[in-house]
Design a protein that fits this description.
- The chain is an alpha+beta fold.
- The protein folds into 3 domains: 6-95, no CATH class; 102-187, PDZ domain (Pdz3 Domain); 191-328 and 344-402, Alpha-Beta Complex (2-enoyl-CoA Hydratase, Chain A, domain 1), CATH 3.90.226.10.
- Helices cover 32% and strands 27% of the residues.
- The chain has 13 helices and 21 strands.
- Strands 1, 2, 14, 15, 16, 19 and 20 form a 7-stranded antiparallel β-sheet that branches.
- β15 (261-266) and β16 (274-277) form a beta hairpin.
């Protein structure tokens, strides 16, 4: 593994150039449960190909010649946590998510101190219809105990299960509950909206996939049509948005900007260095925007928030965002059935800020408790007499900003 044959270098270089021409670059906080490089057996040719890509395209210049004398597993330990080897199932999951559709149950699961916790159920999915909830702890899958199993193991089990019905047992408030769910194709609806009183629009973006740009544009057009004219203001909710594709974040930023820089990316190879500029055409015609973020707003969501903040186009409200300022690219391996998800660049907001490990600081800070009470349902149903006074005051501040005379 100390040398890389020139033929392999030429082949790998052709592959990666072709792939970057297609351009599938993404930014996300929540990784699918990827295979570990230690779990796969690679040929010498495959290992050399991986070494070449890391040497040529990784965002930092690592001492590959020294590290490669050990093992690929050791080498990957020197990469950032977002750079991973993807097996065929991992690759399929990424493309499905980016396309806005996948087949499954509709649950998002996170490993917390050796327990598997459901962090979200997708709307209009088998999980949400069955009544699974955020915070449920996964105990059994098809009768097999999974409470002490790694997330990758459980993910593979669910993916490869031959039964059409998946039986789950979860713990909720110290009570075990059983659910029987059918896997089905799920459309990932990332955008919801509603017209609020006095011509204010509300748009929530859950993540960024290949359809999100068109969905946001269509939702705003429908809100304008319902109101009968240009909206007087817009609340853009990016809370708990883990990111998605770079192109989607750039395109959505451009919806609200007439000019100016959106984001720049910088890396070690030529194509990693990009400048994204806004084109003329503000969908809101200058109407005020308030953007809501929290500690789970990450990556592509931070690009959008940063672009609107630095261009003085929106008031950012909430709490400091996650702070993931790196860009990952998918680089195919071999015949393209496996790939590397490799960090190839850092991104910078229009003012030149790197938010990696720092996050976007809101213009108006809110504490976590108040921010969590300002839920989507509260924003969309302001006539609810159960709303606490401090939330009512916060909604009034939002309206004051959005309805201010230009």
């Amino acid at each position: 593994m100390n040398t890389i044959p020139q033929a392999n270098l030429r082949q790998a270089h052709t592959l990666v150039n072709t792939f970057f021409a297609i351009l599938f670059v993404f930014l996300t906080l929540i990784n699918p449960v990827f295979a570990s490089i230690t779990d796969v057996t690679l040929s010498e040719e495959e290992s050399n190909e991986i070494l070449f890509h890391i040497h040529a395209y990784y965002v930092e210049d690592l001492p590959i010649s020294e590290l490669s004398q050990n093992s690929l597993a050791t080498l990957f330990e020197h990469l950032d946590p977002y750079s991973r080897y993807l097996d065929e199932g991992d690759l399929d999951a990424i493309f499905s998510t980016a396309s806005g559709q996948y087949t499954g149950l509709g649950i998002e699961v996170e490993e917390r101190e050796s327990t598997l916790v459901i962090t979200n159920t997708l709307s209009n999915s088998p999980a949400s219809r069955a009544g699974l909830q955020k915070g449920d702890v996964l105990l059994f899958v098809n009768g097999q105990k999974v409470a002490d199993k790694p997330l990758k193991y459980v993910s593979d089990m669910l993916r490869s299960a031959k039964k059409s019905t998946i039986n789950l047992i979860v713990s909720r408030s110290q009570t075990n509950m059983e659910f029987a769910l059918q896997r089905e194709e799920i459309s990932l609806d990332t955008v919801t909206s509603q017209l609020l009183p006095r011509g204010i629009g509300y748009v929530s973006i859950a993540s960024f996939n290949n359809h999100t740009y068109h969905d946001v544009a269509n939702h705003i057009k429908k809100l304008k049509s319902k109101y009968g004219r240009t909206l007087r203001g817009l609340i853009l909710d990016l809370r708990d948005n883990p990111g998605g594709t770079l192109n989607s974040a750039v395109a959505i930023s451009d919806l609200f900007l007439d000019s100016g820089l959106i984001v720049t990316t910088k890396g070690r190879f030529f194509d990693a260095n990009q400048i994204y500029q806004a084109q003329r055409g503000d969908l809101l015609r200058g109407a005020p925007i308030a953007v809501l973020i929290n500690e789970n707003s990450a990556s592509a969501a931070e690009i959008l928030a940063g672009a609107l903040q630095d261009n003085h186009r929106a008031l950012i409200m909430g709490e400091r965002s996650f702070g993931k300022g790196s860009v990952q690219s998918l680089i195919p391996l071999g015949e393209g059935k496996t790939a590397l998800k490799l960090t190839t660049a850092k991104y910078f907001t229009p003012s030149g800020r790197s938010i990696d490990g720092i996050g976007i600081k809101p213009d108006v800070e809110m504490n976590k408790e108040v921010l969590s009470q300002l839920s989507k349902a509260v924003i969309m149903d302001r006539n609810n007499n159960q709303i606490k006074p401090e939330i009512t005051n916060l909604l009034a501040k939002l309206d004051s900003h959005l309805l201010a005379e230009k």
